[in-house]
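Re: the request from the purification team.
They wanted to know what the chain is likely to look like in 3D before they choose a buffer screen. I agreed to run a prediction and write the result into the notebook, where they can find it.
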Amino acid sequence: MKPSACLFASLLVLTFTATTAQDLLRLSLRAKGVTAITTSHDNKYLALAQGNDLVIYGAGTDTKIKEFSGTFAGQSQRFKYGHTKDILDIRFNNKADLLATASSDKSIKLWKMPSGELLSTLEGHADAVVALRFADDDKFLISASEDMTIRKWDLATLKEVFSKKEHTKPLRGLDVSLDGKWIASGGGDQQVVIYNTQDGAVVKKIPAHKDWVRSVAFSPDSKTLASGGDDRAIRLWSTESWAKEKEFQQRGWIYDLQFSGDGKYIAAGLEKNAIEFYDVKTGLISLKLSTPTPVLKINVAPDGKSVSSIEEFSTDVHTWDIASLNISPVFHYKDSKDKAPPQIFVSNPPNLQNNRVTVYKDILDLRGSVVDESGVRQLKVNGVQTPIKENGNFVINLPLAMGDNAVNIEVTDINDNIALKKFVISRKNLTGQEYNPVNAKNYLMVIGINNYQYWPKLNNAVKDASDVASTLLTKYNFEFDNIVMLKEEQATRSNIYNSLRGLIEKVGPQDNLLIYYSGHGHFDQLLNEGYWVPVEAHTNSNGDYISNTEILKIINNINSQHTFLVADACFSGSLFAETTRGYSDNVEKFKSRWGLVSGRLEVVSDGALGDNSPFAKNFIGYLKENQKEKFAVSELIQQVKIKVAETSNQTPLGNPLKNAGDEGGEFIFYKKN
């Protein structure tokens, strides 16, 4: 007896397109007098400054984790620990165990996370401290002030390393490049000044704007500096030459700028009541979020899924959903000790051997994943920057020319370690060539298991599989060289899976494939998933089985003309699509993916010892008794369904497979001459 099994869960892909900013509003936090906002690099904390108070939330939630800046000590001790005036900037270090705050009270404070313990106060600026950045693996802190200076602080000694005064008016913008080379500052004197991070030496003074410079931001790869200000322009500068590369004109002042973690977009907080995301390569607006009032501060989350904003005259901090931009997540920053390159895995095309694979398509879904402990900064496929999903997966539609197509995958992590993977996809173009059964090879894979190690033994699964193979070899156009047979102890999970997968490379677009499985099946009601049970599989151990989803995925990647899957076990009717077919004279030229199973969600008979199962007996019987020179798979299925239903209490099902590449054709069986 074979326990029931269910075949193939459908894949549902949801596409969401928002038409208004309100549609994308994910969360509003009610706050009073918000002056600064930031998210920790691990995307765990969101910090808000409300005047001289500091509140920590869980990132992306309204859950308040901590409120400090002196208030925890009691009202009478309020200013003993905290700032006495508004906090103007907040920054987490890489590990998110340290938080730095800059204030109008001219001081910088360092807080232990998540306890909120005040560790130290740095003093030295003569006016409000407007911006902060950690530098050099969190060993140093860079600050900018309205006193027109930038300062570098050693966090080990809590001493000032240097102070530089190159501006003639108060500062507003500050950033440090992720490669650790440059500091950039901008302010009321309309210029952007570039410093060497190590000693503060001036590298370049750029007359960048015609009015106040409000914000500067380095790209994640440190190759571009963006600046924006009151002259309504965003300008991009090359860090190699410090020459202007691009310019985006706006309708109002630019209050804040930030690159997305993958460097693909630059986000701008605008005076004209909006947040806009620009494609760095084209300069075009990719997303616009309208706000009630001017946007003073923006914060793109490290996971690339949201952006938060502080708006003038507003008591709410808004968080917007920007998942549609497909920004690759970045959670970590520089670590000089990290010398390990990222890892690259390619899942499609499968079966890459000696860095070469043959396909029969003009467009390939190149799929894979990239892994790096420090975080991936950038993925390029043949020089094209490619988005990376939160789990590290990527997919790109790759057009293929006739012949060899070189594929170069380049991955750079946060610490500038680079991994390369190169291979060749050889395209053989059969488009427009009508299927010719004379030239087709018929491949057969047969699996039969009686003697399970942990499951009940079966009577006739091996005999059924052997008899099917023998009948097809004897009477029909199947050759021994094109058969894969796995019986008893050969039918392990690894052997079954790898043999199926190996057919992707073997079976060509004018070939046919028949897969016959006879053995135990299992159905998981919780997951609504069916499985084949290999010979060594334990009971109640889904991880030992081969899921129907895995099988369907492999079948979908086998570029055959016709594939016919036959399974003598119980499967769900959800396997099949409702459809009709024409006559055998014309359906053969269309691709097909059919399935025939021995029952629904029910236990089916294995038959008496030494005999065939009721299903196999009728399947083999039709093949043996047929007198036609050729017949379509639908004829075989119809006869087997009728005969089995007449002689047993099970109801076979047969129809085209869902989502497996069926195009309306049918497998045609030809008798040997």
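For the purification team: The radius of gyration is 33 Å.
Please add any questions underneath this entry.
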